[in-house]
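Long-time lurker, first post. I've been practising inverse folding by hand and with some scripts of my own, and I keep getting stuck on stretches where the structure tokens seem ambiguous. Below is the full token string for one chain I'm working on. Before anyone asks, I'm not after the true native sequence, just a reasonable design that respects the backbone. If someone could post their per-position residues I'd love to compare against what I wrote down in my notebook.
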């Protein structure tokens, strides 16, 4: 994995293992949605409802609500606000759909599968979520939660109402980003999980993220074929129910009949990226013993401190998290204006909270954060390190130009009120958690970025994810930590159109003009 990381660094001198290809070739563009031939999605309820819990409380980890029954309506809410289509725009070149969560290049390479027992409105089985149709395509009949539980080495999942499997289609993002697209799979899955966890918390539904599992078993269960589509994460929805022996003796996933369900093919054969394929495969866990061993290492003192709860900001709006999710959109242009201090202090505290998952012990995180602060009330401009609940000044100074350069010379890196660089101590991570740890850290950086974006929009501001010059970021913060992802937070230069409800995406009527303005800004 170290070879993969080094070869895919922006600004690195050696890219000898990367395959040359024509990026964003219209003739080879992959389809934005996965569709099964001869199988129609069963519609989900369009009236998904919402909670009454303020987004600020949810993102702070202080929301409390009684656990509801997971039914088709609540499941529909979770899916729409994490992976659903919320906006659309049309142009002479075609139709572009936008989803509820952030995605690099708006490519959305992550697919979602539901593995559930019998629930109100949804039969037991394995289902694929169809975002555009807003329905579930049935793939496998019967309750196979125990098989998924065996793959993640957690018997409780067999007694949880449902599990979600997030997979990635590498070509959908590599079409633009090449081998570096493997990073984007995990960033995008993390951003999706940030939404999902927030909406689940608001509803009172426990949710837990699994990054350790037997890869070939999960692939077999949902019917995907690596390297064309690979499993990224599993999520347990709801608290376990029933006796401790529920699901005992159930067949392992590999004993289930294979799913050979044809899908609509892409217009052209995908380009093969051997380094990407090798890097993904290097992190695979091949048996339950390897999962247990990895989980034991992850329960150690890996990473940095991360509290489970933080104080919500005083005077924060009371908008529910569902409203904030639909309000959020990638802020493509910002004004160089100041934001109130809580946009930074609470935003970073919320973003860096512990994630309910298997990849770090309670109160720990694999990700740390550096900040380039440009215009925040009561905070001196300069470079900072985020430490738990506060800021540690590394050096003062007005750093807009440097920050923009670090972000691959994208103006948003410097036009922001502040720019957050999500980092990890890569050598320590790989020595402790191996190649699988690389996946987990990238995923957690996406969760942090997604949470930070939601926090910014909660307080009425904007945010977007950015890429970066890897080594220059480390030098800027005088650290051995490697950058994983960047989030720019600030004052939007335009008013975004809120996202729409299921099957009724909001129509963006000025998107082309915005892109023209953005292109003009980038050429300056």
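-- Answer (accepted) --
I ran through it position by position. Result:
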């Amino acid at each position: 994995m170290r070879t993969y990381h080094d070869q895919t660094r922006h600004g690195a001198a050696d890219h000898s293992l990367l395959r040359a290809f024509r990026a964003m070739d219209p003739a080879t563009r992959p389809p934005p949605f996965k569709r099964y031939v001869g199988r129609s999605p069963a519609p989900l309820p369009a009236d998904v409802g919402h909670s009454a819990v303020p987004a600020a409380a949810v993102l702070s980890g202080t929301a409390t609500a009684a656990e509801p029954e997971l039914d088709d309506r609540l499941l529909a809410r979770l899916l729409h606000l994490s992976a659903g289509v919320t906006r659309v725009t049309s142009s002479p070149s075609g139709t572009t759909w936008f989803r509820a969560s952030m995605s690099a290049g708006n490519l959305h390479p992550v697919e979602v599968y539901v593995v559930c027992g019998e629930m109100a409105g949804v039969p037991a089985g394995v289902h694929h979520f169809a975002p555009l149709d807003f329905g579930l395509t049935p793939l496998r009949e019967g309750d196979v939660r125990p098989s998924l539980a065996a793959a993640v080495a957690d018997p409780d999942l067999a007694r949880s109402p449902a599990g979600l499997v997030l997979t990635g289609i590498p070509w959908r993002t590599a079409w633009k980003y090449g081998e570096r697209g493997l990073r984007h799979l995990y960033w995008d899955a993390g951003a999706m999980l940030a939404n999902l966890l927030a909406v689940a918390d608001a509803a009172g539904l426990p949710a837990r993220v699994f990054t350790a599992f037997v890869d070939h078993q999960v692939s077999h269960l949902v019917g995907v074929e690596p390297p064309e589509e690979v499993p990224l994460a599993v999520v347990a929805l709801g608290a376990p129910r029933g006796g401790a022996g529920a699901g005992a003796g159930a067949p392992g996933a590999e004993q289930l009949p294979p799913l050979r369900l044809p899908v609509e093919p892409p217009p052209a054969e995908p380009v093969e990226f051997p380094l990407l394929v090798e890097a993904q495969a290097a992190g695979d866990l091949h048996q339950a013993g390897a999962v247990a061993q990895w989980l034991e290492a992850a329960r150690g003192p890996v990473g940095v401190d991360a509290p489970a709860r933080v104080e919500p900001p005083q005077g924060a709006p009371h908008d529910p998290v569902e409203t904030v999710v639909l309000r959020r959109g990638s802020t493509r242009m910002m004004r160089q204006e100041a934001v109130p201090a809580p946009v930074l202090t609470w935003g970073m505290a919320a973003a860096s909270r512990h994630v309910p998952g298997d990849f770090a012990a309670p109160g720990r995180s694999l990700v740390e954060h550096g900040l380039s602060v440009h215009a925040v009330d009561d905070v001196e401009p300069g470079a900072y390190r985020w430490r738990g609940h506060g800021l540690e000044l590394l050096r003062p100074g007005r750093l807009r130009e440097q920050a923009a350069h670090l972000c691959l010379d994208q103006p948003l890196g410097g036009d922001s009120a502040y720019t957050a660089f999500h980092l990890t101590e890569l050598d320590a991570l790989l020595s402790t958690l191996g190649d699988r740890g690389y996946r987990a850290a990238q995923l957690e950086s996406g969760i942090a970025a997604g949470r930070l974006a939601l926090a910014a929009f909660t307080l009425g501001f904007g945010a977007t994810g950015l890429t970066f010059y890897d080594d220059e970021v480390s030098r800027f913060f005088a650290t051995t930590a490697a950058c994983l992802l960047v989030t720019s937070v600030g004052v939007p230069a335009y008013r975004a159109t809120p996202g729409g409800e299921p099957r009724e995406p909001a129509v963006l009527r000025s998107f082309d003009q915005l892109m023209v303005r953005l292109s003009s800004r980038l050429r300056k």
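A couple of notes from the structure itself: The longest helix spans residues 426-458. Residues 66 and 204 are 5 Å apart (CA to CA). Happy to go over any region you disagree with.
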